[in-house]
Amino acid sequence: MKTEPIKLLIITYYWPPAGGPGVQRWLKFVKYLPDFGVQPIVYVPENPTYPIVDEGLQKDVSDQAIILKNSIFEPYQLASFLSKSSTQKISSGIIPAIKKQTLFQRLLLWIRGNIFIPDARYLWVKPSVRYLKEYIKENQIDTIITSGPPHSLHLIGLQLKKELPITWLADFRDPWTTIGYHKALKLSSYAKKKHKRLESEVLKSADVIIVTSKTTKEEFKTLTSKPIEVITNGYDTENVAKQTLDEKFSLAHIGSFLSDRNPIVLWEVLSELVNEIADFKLHFQLKLIGKVSQEILDTITRYNLQDYVLNLGYVSHQEALEHQRKSQVLLLIEIDSPETKSIIPGKVFEYLVSERPIIAIGPEGSDFAEIITSTNTGVFFTYDEKDKLKKTISSYFELYLDNKLKVYPVGLQQYSRKALTEQLSQLLTSNS
Question: How many whole angstroms separate alpha carbon 426 and alpha carbon 123?
Fold first, then answer.
C-alpha cells in the first residue's frame, strides 16, 4: 500500500533568483525531498530585496515543489533611496571598518541593530503568520521548518507553534547571538537582551533544532533541552564541463571577502614569496571572485600584490563552479575569532569535489578544519602559522611547476546533497 507523502512547509527568505550561499541549502533539499516521500511546500517573499541575484539558479527549482509567495515590506528598500551602495553592502554583510564608515553607514548599522530586531525582515512576521495559519489549516499540514538567518523567520515558526498543533523544526544555517557581525551592529544593552530572549524562546519552543556544525550544537545545548541535530551543508552533482587548469599559479578566493576576514598572514607570505622566488612572480595570480571589501583591496595594495590580482567580482554560481575546478589552489578564509569556529562556509563542500587543493585559514578549533583534514582535500592554518603556510604554498608551487599539483579526496559521499536530504527525511519521519 502506497503511503501519502509527508507535507512539509518550508519557510525561507532566500530563494531563486537570490544568489549567494544563503539560497543553496534549501534549494537543494527541496530538489531531493520528493525522492524520500516528502512534498515540499516553500513559502518565500514575493518582492524581496536580495543583495545578490543569480537567475541561473531558477533551473534548480524542483518542479514538484509548491511555491507560496506573500508580499514583504523591506526597510532596505527605503534606505536604498538615500544610498544604494551603502545599503547593498550592509545588507550583503560587507560592513566597512569602523574608521572608514560614513555617518550614514553608522546610522544604518545602529538602526539595523537596535530597531530591527532580530533583523530587517521582522515586519514580515505578522502578515506571514496570518497567511500561513489559514493555509496550514486548509491543507492539513503537520510539519513546518523555518530557516534562518534572517532569524526573524524563526519568529514566524514560534507564533505558528503557539497557535496550531504542528511539529516545528528550526534550522540555523548560522548562529544567532554569537554570529560575528553582531559586534558591528552597535547593539544597546536593551537590544542585546531582546536578541537573547528571542533566541532562547525559539530554542526552547521548537520541537527540533537543526544546525550545520558541531560547535553550534554544543553552544545551543547550553540553552535548550530540545533535541539538536547536525545536518551540514553539502555539494550537489553539478553539470560542469571538464575545465582546463589555469596556466598561472592561481590562488582563488571564491565568495564574499569581508573586511573582518582580512588574512594579513597570507598577504605577508605571498609578498615574501614574490620577492624571494624569481619564478613565483612570473607565475603567481590572485583570483578574487565575488564581492570584495575595499579594506581587503587596500591591504593587498599595501603588500604590493595589486599587480597579481584578477578581480572578477560576483559571477553566477555556474561560473563559480568552473573557477573552482580550473584554479590551481582554492583559498578558504574565516574570521579569526572564537565566535566563528562554528561557521562552515557552504562553499567548503563544493571545494571538496573540485579536485583542487585547499588552503584554509581560520581560528583554532574551526569545525571546517576537521572536514578538510579528514577528506584529505587541503591544509588548515591558524592565523599565527606563518612559516607553515609559507612552506605549504612553496611546496604547492613546486608541484605546480612539475605539473603534479593534485589532491586525492576520501569520504566525500557523506556530504552529497542527496545523502544529507535522506538524513533530513529520516528526521522528519521520526518526528511526524
Answer: 33
pTM given for the model: 0.87
Question: If you ran DSSP here, which 8-state letter would residue 226 be given?
Answer: S
> How many Å apart are CA 259 and CA 264, to the nearest integer?
11
d(CA 354, CA 323): 9
CA–CA gap between residue 91 and residue 245 (Å, rounded): 35
With bands split at pLDDT 50, 70 and 90, how would you rate the model's confidence at 106? confident
How much is the pLDDT for 242?
Answer: 87
115 — pLDDT class (breaks 50, 70, 90): confident
What amino acid occupies position 312?
A: L
Q: Report the alpha-carbon angle 246-249-254, nearest 5.
A: 70
Smallest CA-to-CA distance from 347 within 360, 364, 363, 335 is with 360
Q: Rounded CA gap, 366 and 381, in Å?
A: 10
**Contact (CB, 8 A) for 133 and 423:** no
Give how far Cα 3 sits from Cα of 6, 36, 38, Å. Answer: 9, 12, 11
What does DSSP assign to residue 380?
A: E
Per the CB < 8 A criterion, the answer to whether 257 and 296 are in contact is yes
User: From the CB of residue 131, how many other CB atoms can be counted at a distance below 10 Å?
Assistant: 16
Q: Residue 289 pLDDT more than 90?
A: yes
H or E segment to which residue 125 belongs: helix 125-139
Three cell numbers at 113? 541593530
pLDDT tens profile 164-185: 999 999 999 999 988 766 666 7
The CA distance from 152 to 154, in Å, is: 5
